């Protein structure tokens, strides 16, 4: 199993809009085809001291191949939507992790 984590840094001015967008638009689209599963959205603790708040969004995929396919299609569309909606008020980076335990 592969965990795909995206950490977003969100400016205070757009925080509520960002959270609404993630929950109402992003997550339903991200999981619609069944490739990405078990989404978890978390606030990064202690991140609010630098003029915004960071959030981590984790989802699971069965394989690297499926995740890469998702990233080139759905993931690309969603990334473009965030950029269009929020510009530089939301920045993010992705991390791909291979689950060691439990397998």
Features:
103 residues; 39% helix; 2 helices
**Largest sheet geometry:** 4 strands, antiparallel
Strand content is 25-35%
Number of strands: 4
Helix content: 25-40%
Mean pLDDT: 95
Secondary-structure-based class equals alpha+beta
Regions with little confidence, pLDDT below 50 for 5+ residues? none
Report the total helices.
Answer: 2
* Shape by Cα distribution: globular
What is the radius of gyration computed over CA atoms, rounded to a whole number of angstroms? Answer: 14 Å
Placed side by side, the strands forming the largest sheet appear as 2-3-1-4
Order of helices and strands: EHEEHE
Q: What is the first-to-last residue Cα distance?
A: 7 Å
């Amino acid at each position: 199993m592969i965990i795909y984590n995206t950490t977003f840094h969100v400016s205070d001015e757009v925080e509520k809009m960002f959270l609404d967008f993630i929950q109402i638009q992003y997550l339903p689209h991200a999981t619609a085809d069944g490739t990405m599963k078990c989404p978890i959205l978390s606030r990064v603790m202690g991140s609010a001291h630098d003029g915004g708040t960071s959030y981590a969004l984790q989802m699971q995929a069965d394989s690297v191949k499926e995740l890469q396919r998702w990233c080139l299609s759905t993931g690309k569309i969603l990334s473009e939507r965030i950029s269009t909606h929020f510009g530089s008020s939301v920045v993010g980076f992705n991390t791909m992790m291979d689950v060691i335990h439990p397998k």
